[in-house]
Amino acid sequence: MPLKLSDLNVGDVYREEVCNNLSRTQIVQYAGTSGDYNPLHSDEIFTTQIAGYPSVFAHGMLSMGMTGRMLTNYVGDGRLTAYGVRFTAQVFPGATLTASATIDAIREENGEHFIDLSVSTQDSEGVEVIKGQASARVDA
Amino acid sequence: MAVDKFPIEAGHIMMFARSIGDANPIYYDEDYAKGTEPGGVVAPPTFVQASAQFDPDYFLRPKIGQEWFGSAKGPTGITPKEGGGSGGGSGGGLHAEQHYVYHKPLVAGDTLTATVKPGKSWEKEGRRGGKLMFSESVTEYRDLTGELVVTATSVGVRTERPATS
Question: Which of B22, B38, B39, B48 would bridge with B17, disulfide CB 3.0–4.6 Å?
């Protein structure tokens, strides 16, 4: 359901758990659908012995995709006008992530109404793994 | 990534939505989707990343008949060359940022083209010393009428020294 202007205030926060105990299999699933088969995300032997990381880790784009689900659940389908993130920490198997969107601004442009959101996704220790912003069209 | 033809297929959208843990029926149920504002099955906000599947040269996909740098019998499938290291780095640096601007909904049945142009590049001193080199690439996804659907800006980062050292 699209958001309605009269229900919105600057500072409103929407929050959703976007993954719980992230499995290696889900990371493989994402490799398969996105087409990014970088072994750093699925190949423990390569990742630990050649690349020197403690284990395989999720694609940044998987975290962005899961965070995007929080956004579309909040603003409604087809309402996002922009969505951008920085990947601020790696996400390893077992992660539980919570994504949130906070209304920074409510504005009008050419007779249409938009909200600007700051976006943050954190793991269960409070480490921010995604920091970003998004904008969406809302109903008058 | 530059792609001549990126078909937005309903089955691909369904699988992509599953892989990001999104059970929203607008990504797989045509009857449900008809009754929504977009009026059909649409793609999730990060779906255009999957255009890699339609880039014949995408370097993070194993190619038939070519060595693959991930593990096989040994920890990397790349045969060491005389005098050279075993390599095995992803070669693309790390993905630092991703930004999308949505011009109109991306609907199943569309076909897109993707053209890439380089963006800005800049340097920053890393926290653990050594330079971080950032570079931007801007991909424009257009439908067959030439109308812009999504603009994607990707920022990659490389360290002065190889990340695998």
Answer: B22
Helix A60-75 / helix A24-34 crossing angle, nearest 10 deg: 80
DSSP string, A58-93: --HHHHHHHHHHHHHHHH-TT-EEEEEEEE-S---T
Closest CA to B91 of A50, A26, A61: A50
pTM for the predicted model, two decimal places: 0.93
Beta bridge partners of A84: A133, B99
Maximum CA extent, chain A = 57
Q: Cβ of A49 under 8 Å from any chain B Cβ?
A: yes
Model pLDDT for residues A57-94, shown as the tens digit of each residue: 999 999 999 999 999 999 999 999 999 999 999 999 99
B41 burial level (CB within 10 Å; 0-12, 13-18, 19+) = buried
Q: Using an 8 Å CB-CB cutoff, list chain B residues near A87.
A: 94-98
Strand order in the sheet with A97-109: A13-19, A97-109, A112-123, A128-138, A80-87, B94-102, B148-159, B131-142, B111-125, B3-7
Q: How far apart are CA A105 and CA B90, in angstroms?
A: 40
Q: Quote the distance between the C-alpha of residue B144 and its chain's center.
A: 21
Q: How far is A127 from chain B (nearest CA, A)?
A: 17
